[in-house]
């Protein structure tokens, strides 16, 4: 989780380390750890989510011809067994490093909901013939439900891979993020 693990630990070893966020341009925007801490709205370790106030990044988004997902207009729904999900992750196995940056290759996934819980849902990836290195690094990837005749809708974020026995990806519902960015209690 942001601030609790990888990024905070890396920053403590190298204060010059920056976090890169892509807004659709040719190059990601580099943000410092201090900047992200200042812009953090809320986080919740239990559901592995963090939200930021990105108001001052809106010019970058506008220049890319992209838009942020409007939670006010498109409240994330619950999913049902068999729903088709789509996400794009950045698996750590395809990590590309050089002296000045780190990047990842995009990996699209089309999967079906196999289990639904109150705070999360899971989808089987057993038919992909992939291993855990294909899923490491996709935590936080937005997940969308695809339904015939309807626009795609954000439903959650990838939070974990269950391992080779269950071979499932787990997602936390996006509906726990309030319109103000505060992460609501899941109990």
**Global shape:** globular
Largest sheet features: 6 strands, antiparallel, barrel
The CATH architecture of the largest domain would be: Beta Barrel
The CA-CA distance between the termini, in Å, is: 20 Å
CATH fold category name of the largest domain: Thrombin, subunit H
Mean pLDDT: 76
Number of helices: 3
Which spans of ≥5 residues are poorly predicted at pLDDT below 50? none
Which strand order do you get reading across the main beta sheet?
Answer: 5-8-9-12-11-10
The radius of gyration over CA amounts to 17 Å
CATH superfamily membership of the largest domain: Trypsin-like serine proteases
What is the domain tally? 2
Q: Name the helicity range.
A: 10-25%
What share of the residues does DSSP label as strand, in percent? 25-35%
Count of distinct strands: 12
Structural class comes to mainly beta
What is the string of SSEs from the N terminus onward?
HEEHEEHEEEEEEEE
